[in-house]
From TrEMBL, chain A:
InterPro entries referenced in this protein's UniProt entry, alphabetically: BP-dependent_transpt_permease, MetI-like, MetI-like_sf, OppC_N
Gene3D superfamilies found in the cross-reference section: MetI-like
Region (Disordered): 279-309
Biased composition (Basic and acidic residues): 300-309
One Pfam family named in its UniProt record: BPD_transp_1
Membrane topology term: Multi-pass membrane protein
Taxonomic classification: Bacteria, Bacillati, Actinomycetota, Actinomycetes, Nakamurellales
Native source organism of the sequence: Nakamurella leprariae
Name of the featured protein: ABC transporter permease
Ranges for domain ABC transmembrane type-1: 71-261
Domain of life: Bacteria
From TrEMBL, chain B:
InterPro entries: BPD_transp_1_N, MetI-like, MetI-like_sf
Name by which UniProt lists this protein: ABC transporter permease
Record-stated family: Belongs to the binding-protein-dependent transport system permease family.
An example Gene Ontology biological process: transmembrane transport
Bilayer topology annotation: Multi-pass membrane protein
Transmembrane helix among keywords: yes
GO cellular component, one term: plasma membrane
Pfam families attached to this UniProt entry: BPD_transp_1 (PF00528), BPD_transp_1_N (PF19300)
Organism: Nakamurella leprariae
Biased composition (Polar residues): 1-11
Keyword Metal-binding (UniProt): no
Alphabetically ordered keywords of this record: Cell membrane, Membrane, Transmembrane, Transmembrane helix, Transport
Subcellular location, record wording: Cell membrane
């Protein structure tokens, strides 16, 4: 799957960008020239200089160092949320195909209930009720992205589970679990990969929004969203302040949604089976001639329609 | 807000009596004469309403119960908020009894649910003022912003999506797609700050914070809500435009469009009666999926623009550990989302009867 994505130009760009950002998250704290919470009142709210490449904030803390230290927290939080969503969505999704009607009905209703909850309000409420911590907030976010995984898993599994080769496999005495592992999973995995990529983008946006509000973090701890909240208070003195954290968030989200598109193309879920880069190019040119422009990228209804088709 | 949605349906509505157009349009479904079809529509809609209620009511009960149990198991207590650290156990018990917290959780939930039916969401632990009253006062602020955001989102999204679909393949289409893809990656709070930098700091045109009621001054009201609404709607515009474009372009490739062309129907008639009706489903679904984000987005935009709205109320309540406020805010959000889902689903059913079969 990864090789097929690498063959696409879009996929290559996105993988490179995401690798760089991941490196930033892993090595960031080590690369930082100053401690993220070191204050130096002599250099408050300064512009970029040789000593402070991205300037300083209102307490004289080095913006670059805080940004690097904050990248780990922001990225890990998004990963954690999507990981929780993956487990809470995919497992019930697969089990609902196996465990009979009652489990199916109950799980469907629970997912319906979760999907009506507004993201931000629910995440805010959960952190209020469970205590103000990033893990609580991420659990809430994970719970909210679970329905997307649940639905995509069911939609993809549904196409296989009723087919005659699965029935034949069952008749030969293959256990339910083996059927899922051998026949259903290969069909479901690409769909889940696409959803994971696009949900990571959503997760990052929610994480940054929450930390922006000051929910889920204890103040001196740096995050991309939290830094922008500080910048908001000093927009009139430093209007370019939020530029770099904002750019980092946007680039990461864009790369993730690009990766979701590339995954969808590479796994033939967008109706185009593109194996080599050349054929990808040809097909894109052809699609542009027929339909005009690149096919619109991720979006939940899109996901569903592509799997249903 | 509903009138806005209605305004959009009128674009599509000419497709409804189009049964006479014959078998080329699969969206029209049934083959009988107009009247029986309309009757079918009514009973179908009724059945759909009943079925929807059967889904919505358990969902509502489940969601509220979860929030309530979470509130009960959290060790938050009004005593901590009201009395502070130096409270005696007797005082704590007295305060908890006043808020009804000495009863079992299930009784508390039923009490709360009973109050809910009368529009009573309990009292804030922090200042003892009725939660529903406080939310009611603030809904005007959030309603103004979300309403304007919805108008901008639908009008902007439909305009861009239509334009892109009608000029498909041209540079206009491509630039719309690129711009929308870019906008969709920008989180609302980043957009809000960008707007403040441009319209408040660089060109001091609009206020960067605050709210003025339209009953006081309509001009200043608009000036206050336009930036938050723009920040909230950017996502919606981009999403609707992309979904509408994709839907319309694929509808244009269907055989019934070729058929309609061959029969010499005008491009406008093809667009309104065949393509829009069949191609706008995904866009409307997207709008439905975006509604929770619009309502939830209030939490962030209201904090940025310092507006005394419902979202900021919820965020502040959360940071203070004010459980009734948080629960009340969540209930209002759930009710709003469910109501909008009903509207969206009704529109989808009207547009494509097939959609009514599986909720």
């Amino acid at each position: 799957m990864i090789r097929a994505v690498w063959q696409l130009r879009l996929g290559r760009i996105c993988i490179v960008v995401l690798t760089l950002i991941a490196l930033l998250g892993i090595l960031g704290p080590m690369l930082a020239p100053y401690g993220p919470n070191d204050q130096d009142v002599a250099v408050m709210l300064q512009g970029p200089s040789a000593a402070h490449w991205l300037g300083t904030d209102d307490l004289g803390r080095d913006v670059l160092s805080r940004l690097l230290a904050g990248s780990t927290l922001s990225l890990v939080a998004a990963l954690e949320a999507v990981g929780i969503g993956l487990v809470l969505g995919v497992l019930p999704g697969l089990l609902s195909m196996v465990f009979g009607r009652i489990f199916e009905w109950v799980s469907l209703r629970v997912m319906d209930a979760l999907i009506t909850l507004p993201f931000m309000v629910f995440a805010v409420a959960m952190t209020a009720l469970l205590g103000n911590g990033l893990h609580q907030a991420m659990f809430a976010v994970g719970l909210l992205v679970a329905p997307a995984f649940y639905r995509i898993t069911r939609a993809a599994a549904m196409t296989v589970i009723g087919s005659s080769f699965v029935e034949a496999a069952r008749l030969t005495g293959l256990s339910e679990l083996a059927v899922i592992r051998r026949h259903v999973w290969p069909k479901v995995a690409p769909a889940i990969a696409v959803t994971t990529a696009s949900m990571l983008g959503t997760g990052l946006v929610v994480v940054s929004s929450l930390t922006f509000l000051g929910i889920g973090i204890v103040p001196p701890e740096p995050t991309w969203g939290g830094m922008m909240a500080t910048d908001l208070n000093f927009l009139y003195q430093k209007p370019w302040g939020p530029l770099v954290p904002a750019a980092l968030i946007i680039i990461t989200v864009a790369a993730l949604s690009g990766l979701a598109d590339a995954l969808r193309d590479a796994t033939g879920q967008s109706g185009r089976s593109l194996i080599s880069a050349r054929r990808a190019k040809q097909a894109r040119a052809k699609a542009a001639r027929n339909a005009g422009g690149p096919v619109a990228p991720a979006g939940r209804p899109d996901d569903r329609s592509t799997v249903d088709a | 807000m509903v009138t806005v949605l209605g305004g959009q349906t009128t674009d599509v509505a000419p497709g409804v009596p189009a049964v006479g157009d014959g078998p080329t349009s699969p969206g029209t479904g049934g083959s009988g004469p107009g009247r029986t079809r309309a009757l079918h529509g009514v009973t179908g809609l009724l059945r759909w309403v009943v079925r929807t209620l059967l889904v919505v009511v358990p969902v509502f009960l489940f969601a509220t119960f979860v929030t309530f149990v979470l509130g009960a198991v959290s060790d938050l207590s009004p005593a901590g908020v009201v009395l502070g650290d130096a409270a005696t156990p007797e005082q704590v018990a007295e305060v908890e009894a006043r808020f009804g917290l000495d009863k079992p959780v299930v009784v508390q939930y039923l009490d709360w649910l009973g109050g809910l039916l009368h529009g009573d969401l309990g009292q804030s632990w922090f200042n003892g003022i009725s939660v529903s009253e406080q939310i009611g006062q603030r809904l005007e602020v959030s309603g103004s912003v979300a309403g304007l955001a919805l108008i901008i989102g639908v009008v902007g999204g439909v305009t861009l999506g239509l334009l892109a679909a009608l000029t498909r393949g041209s540079w206009i289409d491509r630039s719309i797609t690129v711009v929308c893809t870019f906008i969709a990656t920008i989180p609302p709070f980043v957009m809000a700050m960008a707007l403040i930098v441009v319209f408040c700091v660089a060109i001091p045109l609009l206020p960067s914070a605050g709210y003025v009621s339209p009953t006081v001054d309509v001009g200043r009201w608009l000036a206050c809500i336009i930036l938050p609404a723009l920040a909230l709607s950017a996502d919606v515009v981009a999403d609707i435009a992309r979904q509408l474009r994709t839907g319309l372009v694929s509808a244009y490739q269907e055989n019934y469009v070729t058929g309609a062309l061959v029969r010499g129907l005008s491009p406008r008639r093809i667009l309104f009666k065949h393509v829009l009706r069949n191609g706008s489903g995904p866009a409307i679904t997207t709008l439905g999926l975006r509604i929770p984000a619009l309502i939830g987005g209030a939490v962030v935009t209201e904090s940025i623009f310092a507006m005394p709205g419902y979202g900021r109320f919820a965020a502040e309540g959360a940071l203070r550990g004010d459980v009734p406020v948080v629960q009340g805010a969540l209930v209002v959000a759930i009710v709003l989302v469910l109501a909008f889902n009903l509207v969206i689903n009704a529109m989808l059913v009207r547009l494509r009867p097939v959609a009514g079969r599986g909720i």
